[in-house]
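Q: I'm building a small set of examples for a reading group on sequence design. Run inverse folding on the following structure and report the sequence directly after it, with nothing in between.
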């Protein structure tokens, strides 16, 4: 049995899928002094064949459980880029891990949530004091907010959730999640973590209202049809004119990366990224926006993004209740990376400085999951989410 908790943070840019998996697994085995990890959490560029990479990684380091997703930018404390793979491996005598995949997310979120919770070992039992789960979902299947709500209800609010939506390098065509060597779309995977020590989760964004409050007068899922009884596209056009920005209905993404939607929650703003303008003047977003909600058009800058990431990291450390951090997992939106460009490195630097000597790995996602005590919402956009595993 290992002593307390130890970890490994690895990264590879090897081109061949099988060789990349072997490289990751070999690094993990070496950093854990030849011992197999209890859990591996993996973020993989869509350029790789995930089945080949996972099989090679499993053979190289023989993890007890393995979970992951395709991504839209991968990073660790030491490296970052697109077209790579990063991973965190954990070995612990103080934690128990279990992973599960639920399929058919688009058709029936409730059934998928029930399937996941049915596999959790800590539900309905006294068990360890601290119960958490990493959730990685195919965000393109939609309904991620509803899924997290269902998981919260089915676990009686006794679990905290963190994670994100799988990516595909901002192509928005097909995203994948992994459980063991199983690979699927239209699915969600969960890594249950039962721990004798608290696991810290911090969430923060650096966006502020840049418009007056607006009422969502009509919406269908992630499509906003009208705001204040005016077509959504017209509202964005008016905001662009008032703020001296350019807005092109045929190519709105450059504008949308700097002007996203904030849903007022009473505890702050839950963010949604607009993606496209439809022929009828409606605007499609990365996740659902309910009819009747009060929203604002939001703005930010690189400095605010870095400060938000650092704030989320410090909040996660505080939730360790004095326990020393062992390793961290960091998620932020692909829209943040695209908006910041090279300055995204400064956000990673802010996380690194807040963590001190603690290493981290993570990826850019299509939405972020954060649901814990004292935190609002469940599924976010353009939001920094940090999870810290104690030593």
């Amino acid at each position: 049995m290992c002593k307390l908790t130890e970890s490994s943070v690895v990264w590879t840019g090897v081109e061949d899928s099988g060789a990349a998996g072997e490289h990751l697994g070999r690094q993990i085995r070496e950093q854990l002094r030849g011992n197999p990890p209890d859990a591996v959490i993996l973020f993989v560029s869509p350029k790789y064949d995930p089945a080949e990479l996972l099989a090679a990684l499993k053979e190289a380091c023989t993890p007890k459980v393995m979970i992951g997703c395709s991504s839209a930018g991968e990073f660790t404390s030491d490296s970052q880029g697109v077209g790579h793979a990063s991973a965190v491996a954990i070995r612990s005598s103080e934690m128990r891990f279990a992973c599960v995949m639920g399929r058919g997310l688009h058709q029936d979120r409730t059934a998928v949530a029930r399937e996941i919770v049915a596999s959790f070992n800590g539900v309905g039992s006294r068990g360890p004091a601290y119960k958490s789960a990493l959730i990685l979902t195919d965000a393109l299947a939609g309904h991620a907010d509803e899924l997290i709500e269902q998981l919260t209800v089915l676990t009686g609010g006794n679990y905290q959730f963190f994670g994100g939506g799988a990516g595909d390098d901002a192509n928005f065509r097909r995203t994948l999640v992994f459980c063991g060597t199983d690979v699927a779309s239209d699915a969600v995977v969960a890594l249950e973590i039962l721990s004798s020590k608290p696991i810290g989760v911090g969430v923060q964004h650096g966006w502020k209202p840049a418009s007056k409050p607006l009422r969502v007068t009509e919406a269908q899922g992630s499509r906003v049809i009208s705001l204040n009884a005016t077509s959504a596209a017209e509202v964005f056009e008016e905001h662009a004119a008032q703020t001296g920005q350019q807005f092109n209905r045929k190519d709105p993404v450059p504008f949308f990366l700097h002007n996203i939607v904030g849903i007022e929650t009473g505890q702050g703003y839950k963010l949604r990224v607009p993606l496209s303008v439809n022929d009828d003047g409606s605007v499609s977003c990365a996740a659902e926006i309910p009819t009747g909600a009060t929203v604002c058009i939001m703005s930010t800058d690189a400095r605010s993004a870095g400060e938000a990431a650092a704030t989320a990291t410090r909040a996660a450390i505080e939730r360790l209740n004095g326990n020393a951090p062992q390793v961290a997992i960091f998620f932020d939106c692909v829209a943040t990376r695209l908006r910041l460009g090279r300055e995204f490195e400064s956000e990673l630097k802010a996380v690194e400085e807040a963590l001190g000597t603690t290493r981290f790995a993570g990826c850019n996602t299509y939405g972020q999951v954060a649901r814990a005590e004292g935190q609002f919402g469940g599924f976010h956009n353009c939001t920094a989410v940090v999870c810290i595993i104690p030593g």
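The chain is about 25% helix and 35% strand.
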